[in-house]
Predict the structure.
Amino acid sequence: METPREIPVYAFIKRELKNQIESGELAEGTRLASEHELARQYNVSRNPTRQAMRDLELEGYIVRSPGRGSFVAPKAQWQKPLRIEGWRTVALACPEFECHYTRSVVRRFNQTAADKGFHTMFYFLRFSHETEFEFLANMRNSGVEGVAFWLQHAAEKTLDLLRKFQKSGYPFVLVDRYVRGFQTDFVVTDNEDIAYQLTKALVRRKHKNIAYITSGLDNTAAEDRFSGYRRALKEAAILFNVDLMGIFGSSGGSPASVVSRIMAYRSRPTAFLCADDGIAANLLDELAELGFDVPGDVQVALVDDNELTEALGIPMISAVQAGDEMGRQSAEILLERIESPQRTVQQRFLKAELRVHAPVSREAAPEERRIQTRAGETA
């Protein structure tokens, strides 16, 4: 594929698709080629096609349906004038755009801000301790009026900078993560409640040996999920067993070694609680390698059901975070902070939806066919 030298490959693909949509060649509701198919068509890797599709979704030209694909959006959605010049600008920084949850946050944040006359600049970045600090320091002088930020490391240097933001009146809101004792605006999932509810669901199915798998305990989301798991065990008079806990990654070991160790334990688990769906995917692979059936031999519950259960067709219990609500509330709080710098600090904990993907292996409580903890908030 030959593209004009002055534009990146992804921008060329995006322009081609946008022209086809605007001309009517791709009509409303038309299913688009997948990222893989586009990569083959343009003879490129998937990275530029992924970026092109991501941008088209953010600009309202396409909509993505989990498990079905990408479709041309209604004309009224993408014909709205995107008048960057003259608009006030905010920023949203998050570590990825690949899962349904973060896409929901981004999409609703963008929509809410646009409805109030703000253009949103998006940054999809995985930060080191240093680059996280540098990004925020540059934001202050970028002309952006405020930033919604996925705090990935919370190093003391970064927290000191955020405290300076507060003193100087520069608006920001933390998204998905918060810092204990830091009195600032945030919107996060009630992670303690998610793990508590999932563990209770397993306990109601007569499980007593419930293993817990995480990728670390280095942020409040991970800490709170582990705390919810421990609380549910304690309420059920089940002793926490460190031998049934595993950490995937450099601090704990490979998925193969962790799962093999846990399943070789003399009182091997009959259920696993996974801190996220990436961990669950690795767990399922390793259990299959060891010859264990899910849910026949082992029940699996997980946080962040990003289409995993539908894609694999394996019955599991999952908790789905309220991405749309998080995006909406984050944008509203940030814009309110911009307009009223002295307003009261807003700290929101959003409840998740618990889903039971039947059939399950043990006696299921009838009320658990579909449980939804109320969407709420607390200061």
Q: What stands out?
A: DSSP finds 13 helices and 15 strands in the chain. The longest helix spans residues 323-339. The domain at 191-322+352-372 is CATH 3.40.50.2300 (Rossmann fold). Residues 10 and 48 are 4 Å apart (CA to CA).
